[in-house]
Every structure is written in C-alpha cells, then in structure tokens.
Design goal:
There is one protein chain. This protein is mostly helical. It has two domains: about 5-125; about 145-175. It has eight helices and two strands. A two-stranded antiparallel ribbon has the order 1-2. Helix 1 (about 5-20) crosses helix 2 (about 30-45). The two termini are about 35 Å apart. Residues about 20-30 have low confidence and may be disordered.
C-alpha cells in the first residue's frame, strides 16, 4: 500500500533535517523543505504535473521550476531575489545533491528561473517508502536480508551486550550506526 502524502511530508521533514542541516535550529523558515515537497509532488502523484503546467501557464512545463517555487513560496519581488540564493550551487539542497537543477531543454542557455527542480532518484524512492539498492551500485552489490540473529554469532556474550548497547545508543541519539 502506498504511503499517504502527509506521511511522506513527515518523512521528508525528517530527511531534510538529518541530511541537509546539522540541527533543526538551522531550518529557520522551512523554505528548503517546501522546495523539496514541491519537487517531490509529481513523483507521488502525476496530477501535479497538470497543476504545475497550469500555474506556469505553459502546458509543456509540467515539472516545477525555480521560478514556480519562488512564486509559490515568496510574497514579494524582494523575497524572491533573496531566496534565489537557495538555488546556488553552494546552497544546502544542491550541495548535498538532494536536489538538482535541470535546464529547460527548449532553451539553449536558460536562466536560473527556467531550470526544473529534480530530486535525486534515490531520495525519491526513500521518501516514498520504497526499499532497495541504489541502482548506481547494482552492478557490484546486492541486498541481503540477515538470516542469523545476534544469538547465532560466534562471539562472547560480553561483545554481544556491547554491540546491543552501541545500537541502542545510536538509536536514542537518532544517529546512523556504521560498523
């Protein structure tokens, strides 16, 4: 069963907090999260493509553009000018490669505003609750579901307890555990 959009939004919020910002206090106004959701919407429901085409007054522009995001999220021309910096190469969403700006193929050298917003494919699959291996690694990796539990490992009980404590500590802190 597909997850509902509110669950995806919650996941997106957690995702952007973990992967883009060191702490929630850095996300002052949620602008980047809103951009992430705008870019995610057509991946969740294709009807958003028609909405975006209507909003951009162009049936060929079915994907959200920088201009559309700024028009939806900014109340004034001054705010739009200020927020353009969020689409610079050093901005958090682009630097972390969560979001890509795709040039409009109908323009030889399109301005920034004409670029489309495209989430990384792996980010989309993760936000939509789909599991699996990143296709970029499929040629050299495979996912394996563990068939053994900690009880089956040939290590001392002391080391098993230490491993469990390490996992629990990482889980409580909300950190990723890499062994």
């Amino acid at each position: 069963m597909a997850p509902c959009f509110s669950a995806i939004l919650k996941t997106a919020t957690e995702f952007i907090e973990v992967f883009t910002y060191p702490s929630l206090s850095t996300v002052e106004d949620g602008f980047d999260l809103d951009v992430l959701v705008i870019a995610l919407a057509p991946e969740f429901e294709l009807r958003y493509e028609r909405v975006y085409a209507f909003l951009q007054d162009d049936v060929t522009r079915r994907r959200p553009s920088v201009d559309l995001a700024l028009n939806l999220l900014c109340e004034s021309a001054e705010a739009k000018l200020l927020r353009r910096a969020r689409f610079a190469p050093e901005a958090a969403l682009l630097r972390s490669e969560l979001l890509k700006l795709v040039p409009d193929p109908q323009n030889a050298q399109p301005p920034l505003l004409a670029h489309y917003l495209k989430l990384d494919d792996r980010v989309v699959t993760w936000l939509l609750g789909q599991e699996g291996l990143d296709p970029r690694f499929a040629h050299c990796c495979r996912c394996i579901d563990p068939s053994l539990t900690l009880d089956h490992m040939l290590i001392s009980d002391e080391k098993k307890c230490a491993l469990l404590a390490l996992v629990e500590l990482a889980d409580t802190r909300g950190e990723q555990l890499k062994l």
